[in-house]
Design brief:
Elements: H1 3-8, E1 11-12, E2 17-19, H2 34-49, E3 52-60, E4 69-77, E5 81-89, E6 95-104, H3 132-136, E7 140-145, E8 148-153, H4 168-186, E9 194-204, E10 213-221, E11 226-235, E12 241-252
Helix pairs in contact: 2-4
């Protein structure tokens, strides 16, 4: 079991990945964090596919009950790239989320040059109160302004997968945190407002270890109740693009 899986507290066998609810894994509303849910899909897919996550396409169906959740996966297609389908259910059998994942059968080479784009300034102090799970991963939101959010995931050994690289579940949690910061202001949510993640996409460009990752999110309101954030994630020291992503939120404004 990887350090990140131990941090989550998952139990896994050949058929499913099981997680009991704990406060450090929750969002601000006290339910299982969207990043923790994404992590379970990544773990279930990787265990079955036998390769590192390359892409995650996730739909959040319903908030989980305060109970044990189980992720089960099946392989759709095998080859150099393995495709998997996974479902997360609660103790009553209700579907919490569904995901399609793509996995590499071998470790990719990385001979690309560092990015010449201007990386977002990530030197500031945290400006937003983190959810319990974001705090568990030590993610800090360092910029939060209208339609834009910047968050930093500091490297720690407990975030590693079985090969010593940053676990994709940690990247997914960074996506949810940075995009949430951008969406909150773009949607004009004040006291009493709320935003629920309804979909997430994560495309991992390269694996990273030993350095922080910076995420920058830009949000666009598509309608009165849907806001989408698009993101890029960089390795802070080497300036290489680690991943791209998006997250879509259903927003409810205060009366």
């Amino acid at each position: 079991m990887s350090p990140f899986e131990r941090l989550l507290g998952v139990e896994a066998d050949a058929d499913e990945v099981v997680l009991a609810p704990r406060h450090p894994l929750t969002n601000r509303g006290g339910r299982l964090h969207g990043g923790a849910i994404a992590s379970l899909h990544a773990i279930a897919g990787e265990r079955l596919a036998g390769g590192a996550l390359a892409e995650l396409m996730l739909l959040y169906v319903a908030p989980p009950a305060d109970s044990v959740v189980r992720a089960t996966a099946s392989v759709i297609r095998r080859g150099g790239l393995v495709q998997a389908d996974s479902t997360l259910t609660d103790a009553a059998g209700a579907v919490v989320s569904r995901a399609l994942t793509l996995h590499r059968g071998s470790v990719e080479s990385d001979d690309t040059e560092p990015s010449t784009d201007a990386l977002p300034d990530a030197s500031g102090a945290a400006v937003a109160e983190a959810s319990p799970f974001a705090a568990t991963l030590a993610i800090a939101v360092v910029q939060r302004e209208r339609a834009r959010g910047v968050a930093v995931l500091p490297w720690r050994d407990v975030l590693a997968d079985g090969g010593g690289m940053l676990h994709p579940g940690a990247l997914a949690t960074l996506v949810d945190t940075a995009s949430g910061a951008a969406v909150w202001n773009e949607a004009g949510l004040g006291d009493g407002g709320r935003a629920a993640t309804v979909a997430m996409h994560l495309a991992v460009q390269r694996r990273v270890a030993g350095e922080d990752v910076v995420a920058e999110a830009h949000a666009t309101a598509e309608s009165a109740d849907l806001v989408t954030a698009t993101l890029r994630l960089w390795a802070r020291r080497s300036r290489r693009l680690v991943a791209t992503g998006s997250a879509r939120y259903r927003v409810v404004r205060s009366a």
